[in-house]
């Protein structure tokens, strides 16, 4: 058996497709509920979402795409005005 160097090994843990290629929203237990009356349109939830599941609407408010949201709660944690609440699906 010949010795192989680490460079010869196949690539691992490399995402060839993003979560937007697969509907993964049914993985989570919680979903973000956005109170637009409190929202300041800072869009931090959009930028912090690791799945890209929070979109900016034409009116400047954000909206979660529940077909792709996994319910991690990062958006609610990072919201400076706490207008996002994680609720059970």
What would you say this structure looks like, in words?
With 89 residues, the chain is of the alpha+beta class. The chain has one domain (24-88): 2-Layer Sandwich (Alpha-Beta Plaits). It has two helices and four strands; from the N terminus they run βαββαβ. The protein has helices spanning 44-48, 74-78, and strands at 30-34, 54-56, 62-64, 84-88. It has a two-stranded antiparallel sheet with strand order 1-4. The chain has a two-stranded antiparallel sheet with strand order 2-3. The longest helix has 5 residues, at 44-48. The model has no long low-confidence stretch (mean pLDDT 87).
Record the SSE blueprint.
Blueprint: E1 30-34, H1 44-48, E2 54-56, E3 62-64, H2 74-78, E4 84-88
Antiparallel strand pairs: 1-4, 2-3
The number of helical segments is 2
Widest sheet: strand order?
Answer: 1-4
C-alpha end-to-end distance: 53 Å
**CATH architectural group:** 2-Layer Sandwich
Q: Count the strands?
A: 4
The gist of it:
This protein is an alpha+beta fold and 89 residues long. 11% of the residues lie in helices and 18% in strands.
Task: List the keywords.
elongated, 2 helices, Alpha-Beta Plaits, about 90 residues, 4 strands, alpha+beta, two-stranded antiparallel ribbon
């Amino acid at each position: 058996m010949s010795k192989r160097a680490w460079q010869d090994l196949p690539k691992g843990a490399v995402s060839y497709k993003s979560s937007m290629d697969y509907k993964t929203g049914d993985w989570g237990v919680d979903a973000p509920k956005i109170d637009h009356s409190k929202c300041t349109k800072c869009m931090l939830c959009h930028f912090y979402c690791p799945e890209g599941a929070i979109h900016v609407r034409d009116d400047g408010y954000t909206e979660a795409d529940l077909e792709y949201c996994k319910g991690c709660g990062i958006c609610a944690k990072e919201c400076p005005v706490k207008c996002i609440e994680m609720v059970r699906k």
